[in-house]
Design goal:
By secondary structure, the chain is α/β, with parallel strands linked by helices. It has helices spanning 2-10, 47-55, 69-78, 82-85, 107-113, 158-170, 204-212, 217-223, 226-233, 238-242, 254-284, 316-319, 347-352, 362-366, 441-455, 470-481; strands at residues 23-28, 57-63, 117-121, 139-141, 177-183, 292-297, 320-321, 323-326, 336-343, 381-385, 404-408, 411-415, 422-425. The protein has a single domain, classed as Alkaline Phosphatase, subunit A (3-Layer(aba) Sandwich), CATH 3.40.720.
Amino acid sequence: MRAFGVLVLLVGCGSGEVLRPNLVLVTVDTLRADHLSCYGHFRETSPRLDELAAEGVVFERAYAVMGTTLPSHLSIMTGLYPHQHGFVANHGAMKGSFRSSEGRETLAEALRATGYNTAAFVSGPTVSRATGLNTGFAHFDEHAHPDPKTLADTSRRSRETTDAAIQWLESEPSQPFFLWVHYWDPHEPNIPAEPYASAFKSDAQLEALIDERRIKPERLAQLFSQKELARLFAPELYPALHAGEDVDLPAIGRAQIRELLNAYDGDVLATDASFGRVLDCLRGKGLYEEALIVFTADHGQALGQHDWLEHGRIQGENLHVPFVLRPPGANHVAAGRKGRVVSAVDLAPTLLKFLPSLAGSPFARQLSGADALDPGFLRNFAFSQRSVRVRDWETATDCDGLKFALTTGDWKFYLRPEGPDELYDLRRDPKEWNDVAADHSELTETLRRIIEDLLAERPHSPEGQSGDSQAARDFARMLEQIGYTGK
């Protein structure tokens, strides 16, 4: 009887339209779209997401606002660009956590104000309570390790996070609810558990992928510090290096690149399996059909491409993310694939299409993005910026400095205050190898003006923040533990 009563409450009379759907948002840390089978990867890394994608809408060209976790998640949650919500690096939370204000609300706050039950289950330190991402969530379940000794201690696997989320769902939470589940597994270091650790083996297709991406292990060994290399290729040695001990790292060659890619795909598959368990639980509780389900990522991962191993930078491999949306009930949105360029700031406006309780709300008015499902969606670019952080081991020649980027249907433009601008023709050069800015001066000037205008829109600087609190000090210590040190 309870399930029937909820159904009557949520579904419009005779229309089949879900008026107050349960919202399930899944974000995956460090997940580049092109390592998912539903986005064309040659391996079957995402069978459960593929099932959802077949029922919903796949945005083929969705881009993060930054290659960095906290700013990107705040943009997903607020519909604002980083310069508008005020966090342009993870270490911004070392000075104080995000605090909402007028024009800077979170989706969770807005939904909670309309009667939604809000719950979050997160897996990594850069989305923890210390960052302020708990804002608006009545229930916030995070990984907490009192004294992390290894990199693995600073986060939890998707399996554990899923266990906690399913336990909450099994508790018969009041409805409607907004459930956010965050996974960390694809983030370095990639140490998947079995059976995922041995799920993928090196083969000719992997060799071709390494060549296509022009990954040069010898170049990476020169550019990265010993600690950074250990974090990616020998995490068991990282604690000793972090403590200042002399450690001999194994040579970094093509074999290590193969292992890294196999392990990364194993972690993607493990995440997909955990996501599938959430879907199965929703089905078992009779909640699946009428739920609004969204799957996305905060940013991608370089994995050796463009002489970079991690994220933070804003080449395509660090920005191209999945965005899959399964609408609730009979809402007349056809399943399929959308080729338009969309941004993370478009996620919240797109959700509002199915959340009529937020129509006309202050949250709806603050959004910088637009409904990506609207046939009248006109913006033809995604705006991104590089994390405002320079690591001590990055030399002036290695670091690509502060950058802003526009990704359009055909072009990728970088505005570089510290150097010459760059332009890439994505039709002929989708991997961004050949800078053609010198041949298109009028176009580069137009794109530069678009970025300058965007940066002038509602910039925000957090006020009154201090890094003196114990929470801020603990967060700084955790960032240092996982290698996120910098200025």
